[in-house]
TrEMBL record:
This is RND superfamily drug exporter. Keywords: Cell membrane, Membrane, Transmembrane, Transmembrane helix. SUPFAM superfamilies: Multidrug efflux transporter AcrB transmembrane domain. Gene3D superfamilies: Multidrug efflux transporter AcrB transmembrane domain. GO terms for cellular component: plasma membrane. The lineage of its organism: Bacteria, Bacillati, Actinomycetota, Actinomycetes, Mycobacteriales. It is a multi-pass membrane protein. Coiled coil: none annotated.
Amino acid sequence: MAKFLYNLGSLAYRKKWPFLALWLIILIAVGTLAGLFAKSPSTTFTIPGLDSVVTMEKMQERFPDAEDSTSAPTGNIAVQAPEGQTLTDPAVQAEVNEMLEEVRQTGVLENPEAVVDPVLAAQGLQAQMVPQLEAQGTPPEKIAADVAAVSPLSEDETTGIISVSFDAPAVMDIAAEDLEAVTNVLDEYDEGDLTVVYNGNAFGAAATTINMTSELIGLLVAAVVLLVTFGSVVAAGMPLISAIIGVGIGILGVQLTTAFSDDINEMTPVLASMIGLAVGIDYALFIVSRFRNELIKAAGGNDLEPKDLAEKLRGMSVATRAHAMGMAVGTAGSAVIFAGLTVLIALAALSIINIPFLTAMALAAAATVAIAVLIALSFLPALVSLFGTRVFAGRVPGVKAPDPEDEHPTMGLRWVRRVRKHPVLHLVVGVLLLGLLAIPAVNMRLAMPTDGTAAPGTPPRIAHEITEDAFGPGRNAPMIALVDTIDLPAEERPAAVGAAVQEFLDTEGVTNAQVVATTEDMDTAQVLITPEFGATDPQTSETLQALRDAETGYNEQTGATYGITGVTPIFDDISDRLQDVLLPYIAIVLVLAFLVLLLVFRSIWVPLLAALGFGLSVAATFGVTVAIFQEGWFGIIGDPQPLLSFLPIMLIGLVFGLAMDYQVFLVTRMREGWSHGKTAGNATSNGFKHGARVVTAAALIMISVFAAFMAQEMVFIKTMGFALAVAVFFDAFIVRMMIIPATMFLLDERAWWLPKWLDKILPKVDVEGEGIRDLSVADAQPEPAPATAR
């Protein structure tokens, strides 16, 4: 593999234009196709096979007009009267009707005549429900409770809810201009005396806007780190340009995929951008750094300052520079491939869980990482060649950018000597520190995103809070029970439905249950259940489980069955599924990555230590994230919320891949030294000296890129950005630069132990570049030299 990569790197350097043109054509082509065919990303989350999803599908079969509550193009408008007034006041009611008339006039609603002010709607509902329930012999207190549970007007008449449905097949099919037409009207009236906000499926996309601020901040900090690393403005720009090209192709590809898949949600491109930008810069950094080292060797010494290197380059032939690039890609490029492969394994393994939206997010991020690897191996050498001898020009004043290949002690060497002197102390301190930070993780609570977890101050969050205050927490977390009496005689069906309603009312945590729809022959009924608590409250999950547990006894008593569905049950089932598959997923990733690292390092202990170190860093990351984002420690987060259900499994996949990146880049240099005859201790010190500066720069870049995404409004992206930044810090600086070298010193020669029988059957993988060590400048220019006259 090293020889192939050498040829690729030297060829791309010598024949730069075809490689540059190829990637630019791909970027333009994908961008054009995305512009022509891309659709709005989905805002829904669902998993086939869940009890609640199966019940939803059954309900749509029995009630053809029923909509999927997670994807229906519906929303709610919450209206609150000015302080001291009510919605029944003539002036207030007139203003509300004026607003609703403008909403109807937009022409984007499916049934505009059904959009009426909550006072009239409540009066109509009262006139319809009360006689019906009285005719059925319903007690007065139950009638009052049923009417209040569905009334669009609060008991104090200050708050009203207006339901709207857009003229579109599903929420993701709502045109942006249609949504904007309605929200513009509502926002205008919200600026007056009325409080007018909105939430629900249709308005979810309007609540969260994705901007490029995070990417720009990440790029800016990365640029500073690269300037310090290389001491050159031009060299610092190489990783940035290549990463931007790769991320551009990746994001545009994700947008194009929306034309073929409904599983691409609004977080998918942001996650792909976050991961692609970080690894794209890092992979390019490793290759450019190794290229610089090779040029210094070719220039005649290890003591060259950046300005001296720039002068030497001016007299260096293309063949010499192409050879240096070939050596860089053949060595650092091999590590890039295996580092990228561990990230791909961690991400692609998420598809085994069979959660469509999670699979789409993982595969999109994995594809962006794969593009970053290919860009670093082919586009980057051509880009460097484009600048020729000026690649290390634009010297930054005051920055020495020392080369780790020289003989002078570097900060990395001084640090690893301290670790070597007291390995037990550093090992114990590192493990204890991460262990203590992990303690808050035992209180971790998970929930799916709802309007209640939206950013404070946004219309959905305000609408959620207004509704909760005026109607109770349960109004935001309705459930639907589908009662199936099809196997019962017709005369027994009403009693069975009534028994179901009573069963629900007797369940702790339920404030109301009432029949809202039945089939013509009453073989199926929909029962609206209003819980006592909100959607993300653990007690609501307990209520849902109690309702399901009671189904067995209900079936034995009546012969009928029921299932529970709705947004809240579906989201609760998704959380349970994600929690159930977490451990199997970790096992799959660990086994696959162990095999890959076994091939790279040809050691039992090194892959095992890599996995254990990852476990420590991710546990500490969970602890710190729970403490700050869920528990609100230190007041950093003003709106503590449960962590999103799919954050742990995504975080584990991403952190594992990134952790193995640092393991590969740092320990391959240790392996390289050991394989060339150094003692295990000296190889560890020398390898750390060579890799520490670049790994430190890479870690700082990743931390800055990830931390910059905390500026996004999306709670998931904000939390994920923080968690990834913290995880990289723990893993790079505590695990890989403290615990791993300490353990390697303690194991000494045993660190590279591999059973002989296993050594014989494992395929040889040349990560250290053994196959290209004897190549010369002539190998970088295989074309015959032109004949000269004698």
